[in-house]
């Protein structure tokens, strides 16, 4: 790869924000180097590339760093015209995709609260996740009025689907670790169908984390969080 076209992604394997960037790069067929970061011991490179947030993901292209996952996805879409177009041309549709992609962060934050709490606090967090998923499901009807297609060509994948999959691609592992079912064909048919269809795309499937590894990590985080809150 020519140095001026070199693409490097700094990430952390379990992060949905990193995963969405990886999925986009794969779908677009963009070769890249991946650098795994230990967020408890951040590398000098990460601190230099992202001095404000000091977080992953960071995409480096032509020696320039781009931070914040949604901004990175837009940069990828505007820089590389190969593969699927992630954002629609229509300004209104673009604004709607951006809104719901951003909204997914709120859903994720509530799911983290479920993971790190117990008792009444967890019940409240579960209720919040359920309500937010119901709102998301309603919002998706505007994009898929006839339901989500059973099969999905990678050329038709958009930014919103990439973001949904980055958060819920491991929903079965999340269920096992939390003991709560959030994503089902009955309660969240569009989210469930989108994850199922995207799983069949080789470029996406190749980047999925193993079920066992995700379960083990989530249980580890939960144990530590509950131990800290009990002290």
From TrEMBL:
Family matches, as InterPro entries: Glutathione-S-Trfase_C-like (IPR010987), Glutathione-S-Trfase_C_sf (IPR036282), Glutathione_S-Trfase (IPR040079), Glutathione_S-Trfase_N (IPR004045), GST_C_Tau (IPR045074), Omega/Tau-like (IPR045073), Thioredoxin-like_sf (IPR036249)
Enzyme class: transferase
E.C. number(s) listed in UniProt: 2.5.1.18
Domain GST C-terminal span(s) in chain numbering: 90-217
Domain of life from the UniProt record: Eukaryota
GO molecular function: glutathione transferase activity
Main localization category: cytoplasm
Record PROSITE patterns: GLUTAREDOXIN_2, GST_CTER, GST_NTER
GO cellular component terms, A-Z: cytosol
GO BP field: glutathione metabolic process
Signal peptide residue numbers: none
Catalyzed reactions per annotation: RX + glutathione = an S-substituted glutathione + a halide anion + H(+)
Keyword Lipoprotein: no
Compartments it resides in: Cytoplasm, Cytosol
Keyword Transferase: yes
Domain GST N-terminal: 5-84
Keywords on record: Cytoplasm, Transferase
Family, similarity comment: Belongs to the GST superfamily.
Role played: Is involved in the conjugation of reduced glutathione to a wide number of exogenous and endogenous hydrophobic electrophiles.
Protein name as it appears in the record: Glutathione S-transferase
Organism: Prunus dulcis
